[in-house]
């Protein structure tokens, strides 16, 4: 899912994705596309 705004993790890059688990808007660097999760949720799996 696409999202416009600022990444909720780094708070500087443009958010282009939304985490499927927590709903956080995140940039490409903080998104794990293979699982559809932000890096925080991906590390908890």
What does this structure look like?
The chain is α+β, with helices and mostly antiparallel strands and 45 residues long. The chain has one domain (1-45). It is 13% helix and 18% strand. The protein has one helix and four strands. The protein has a two-stranded antiparallel sheet with strand order 1-2. A two-stranded antiparallel ribbon has the order 3-4. β1 (17-18) and β2 form a beta hairpin. The chain is globular and about 25 Å long.
Output the keywords.
single chain, 45 residues, alpha+beta, 4 strands
Summarize the structure.
With 45 residues, this protein is of the alpha+beta class.
Outline, from the CA principal axes? globular
The number of domains is 1
Distance between the termini: 20 Å
Helical percentage: 10-25%
Order of helices and strands: EEEEH
Low-confidence spans: none
Taking the sheet with the most strands, its summary is: 2 strands, antiparallel
The value of Rg in angstroms is: 9 Å
Question: What secondary-structure arrangement, pairings included, does this model have?
Answer:
Blueprint: E1 17-18, E2 25-26, E3 31-32, E4 37-38, H1 39-44
Antiparallel strand pairs: 1-2, 3-4
């Amino acid at each position: 899912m696409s999202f416009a705004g600022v990444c909720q993790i780094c708070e500087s890059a443009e958010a282009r994705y939304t985490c499927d688990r927590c709903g956080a808007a995140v940039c490409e660097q903080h998104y794990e596309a293979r699982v559809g999760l932000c890096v925080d949720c991906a590390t908890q799996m």
